[in-house]
Design brief:
Layout (H helix, E strand, L loop, with lengths): L3 E4 L2 H8 L3 H17 L8 E3 L5 E3 L2 E2 L2 E10 L3 E10 L6 H16 L1
Parallel strand pairs: 1-6
Antiparallel strand pairs: 2-3, 3-5, 4-5, 5-6
Length: 108
């Protein structure tokens, strides 16, 4: 049974669509995995960031991106934040944004 992928806001999708073509292609592959298997597809594709959200890890020769998502009931996964990866660790600011948005979605 498939999962539905949604985006918190059109700007999240626009950020992803601005990634280099090779990173975007890997992201498309990861979204397919997410929609078929759910939010826990495991390393190296995805990992949990503490209690959440999950971090999808698309990459290509020209760079790396990160898409942070949360699982919502009824087999729905919402991509709450995305950014180009430039540092080794996920920046605290990006993680805080994703966690706040995930809380908003969970509350309804």
């Amino acid at each position: 049974m498939a999962f539905t992928i949604a985006y918190y806001h059109p700007l999240v999708l626009a950020t992803i669509e601005a990634w280099p073509v090779d990173v975007l292609a890997d992201y498309a592959r990861l979204v397919e995995l997410l929609s078929n298997h759910g939010p826990v597809i495991g390393m190296p594709h995805s990992r949990a960031l503490g209690q959440g959200p999950f971090e999808s890890r698309p990459r290509g020769r020209s760079g790396t991106g990160r898409a942070l998502d949360c699982f919502v009931q009824d087999r729905r996964i919402v991509i709450v934040h995305a950014f180009p990866k430039k540092t080794r660790a996920t920046p605290g600011r990006d993680l805080a944004i994703a966690r706040q948005r995930a809380k908003e979605i969970q509350r309804g």
